[in-house]
Design a protein that fits this description.
Elements (H helix, E strand, L loop, with lengths): L1 H26 L6 H23 L11 H25 L3 H12 L3 H13 L4 H31 L12 H10 L1 H16 L26 H11 L1 H12 L4 H4 L1 H25 L7 H9 L6 H7 L4 H28 L4
Helix pairs in contact: 1-5, 1-10, 1-15, 2-8, 2-9, 2-10, 2-14, 3-4, 3-6, 4-6, 4-12, 4-15, 5-6, 5-13, 6-7, 6-8, 6-13, 12-13, 12-15, 14-15
Length: 346
Amino acid sequence: MNELAFTSNAVLPIILCIVVGYVLKILKLFPDNFWGALNKLCFRCFLPVLLFKNIYDIKDITSIGNYWQVIVFAAVAIIAIFCIGLLVVILTIKDDKQKGVVLQCIFRSNYAIIGLGLVELLSVSLPADVASTAKGVGALLSAISIPIFNILAVISLSVFVKGEDNKKISVKEILLKIIKNPLIIGVFTGVAVLALRMAIPVDSSSNPVFTLRYFTNYGTNDTFIYTAIKYLANATTPCALIALGGAFTFSAVAKLKWQIIIGTAFRTALVPTACLLVAYFLGFRNVEFPALIALFGTPVAVSSAPMASEMKNDSELAGQLVVWTSLISAFTLFAIILICSNVGIF
């Protein structure tokens, strides 16, 4: 029951924030164009800062080499899911503006927001030394998965839509969109600053003599620059969810039910089942499984909705997928964790 309580506590705040946005829309406290402007603010400011912070918060990037097998598996699995999802949406989704949205739902999880917390929970039941390693693997997978997720998200939301001249977007245009995308800029700025930190001299405790975040007293001695970054990053999720609630309509469920079923089934059931079975037969166990469950089993990323809106895809469908995958994942994650516990992984 602890697993069910945690997964409920992880996803229900997402639903409640969406409800707040929906109620605010019903009360007409803001003009109709407010929700689009809030989406734009999240996409162009808050989300890039959050991604920068997630990358920068990795304490020791050099440890990536110690767990190269699970990192390679995660990267290959995400790309494989993307390729399978690409075939699925081509065969099942007719509207070009919906294909990229469903594809994004299939391969992109909410690892940064829900996943890392889930890794912490699942590590509690492990021996202390194993738990510490499992948490480290979780942090390392965020450094790998976040850039891959965002690059593939830009591709998926670009490849099916048409440009201003009503022609399919070329490879060159897709590459330019990747380079110019605010989320990609946030990720690679974080990687660059993280790499730069490795060149800074360290003190007797092996901590950098200067950094935005002092790891000796984690979270208590942050510089004013990091504190400002943290404020902006913390605004991301509630603002994105409230904007999503402001754009949500129940009447869309009926007309989008087929797309919602496909996206939700893959994100919450088919993808985690397939990936975790392969991981198990490859020999990954309690050290790697908390991060892998979080990576493949969590609902679609909240950022997928504002990203779809900004890139001229079906933002209404993207919002519906965030809501429904969040609701269903509360139960599928519980089932996954229970099964893993029964087979002796935890």
